[in-house]
Amino acid sequence: MKNEWPLWEIFIRGQHGMSHRHVGSLHAPDAEMAIKNARDVYTRRNEGVSIWVVEARHIAASSPSDKGPLYEPSESKVYRHPTFFDIPDEVGAM
Amino acid sequence: MTRDEAFLQFLLRMGDNTLILGHRVSEWCGHAPVLEEDIALANTALDLIGQTQMWLGLAGEVQGEGKSADDLAFLRDVWDFRNVLLVEVPNGDFGRTLMRQFLFDAWHSIMLGRLMTSSDDRVAAIAAKASKEVAYHLERSGDTVVGLGDGTEESHRRMQEALDYLWPYVGEMFASDEVDAEMAAAGIAPDPASLREEYDALVGRVLRKATLTIPDSRFAHKGGRNGRMHTEHLGHLLTQMQWLQRAYPGATW
Prior knowledge:
The complex is a heterodimer.
Chain A: E1 7-13, E2 21-27, H1 31-42, E3 50-55, H2 67-75
Antiparallel strand pairs in A: 1-2, 1-3
Chain B: H1 3-26, H2 35-63, H3 69-74, H4 94-115, H5 121-149, H6 153-166, H7 178-185, H8 196-209, H9 233-247
Helix pairs in contact in B: 1-2, 1-7, 2-5, 4-5, 4-6, 4-8
């Protein structure tokens, strides 16, 4: 529909030190209102300390039909996975 | 009028403003033009009702008749309410609701800023808590007024109509009487008239940005904050808001 506000993807950082996570999307006329709407829709239960908004049309996405060539080659290369180390508990969230 | 009697009137005015506006805004729940605005309005309504619990809770304490905030909200009749008329007028369209919200938020934020230095610690504490919520209300309603005022031809026309309709209700927020004189003398609350200059500057700035014209007239409807004469709309609002406690006295869940 032509009159509809653009769609925005919302990213919220739950606490200091963590990265922003995608939490959902919403409609808003501009970036400032998108942040305000995100505050009202996604942080009303104390979920966040920082909000990023990105207009959905600016996100380039990989195509699901490419998943064979994109991801399968790494499945057989187990030596790339850093699973051979013991990580001390003090390191915290990685 | 004793100081406690004046204090009670002041607290009822604060609490009834937030109660009645909170109820009015809650009427949009499930009806707002878009989902995001629906949630934002419901959040605002909940903030206002939360503030009501603090103001009317303290009012019950000062009154000393063992009444709770709920008793005061649900068991008083129209003539006992002390809210300004602005907050009881019907919502109208979304534009008028947001214009009313902005005109109230601007007063509310300035008032709470002054109350944070009240000589009464309880008042100062409520004001400190509420002012953070209200700062956001004002930012949101102000931005929306600018967005719609300086928007399409239709949104501009509707916002100007809303301003023309609501402006005569603004003056009552700055009227002073013997209750205010008593509160000002005690250092509990400012004389409302002393907020007007800051209000005009703030509201003027936003409305200019919104390309809207403030009506010339300073005529002001009054009678709400002293309870002398509410509009016919308040009674209808109360029949909705209070019906459950009236039909099933003492009901809880």
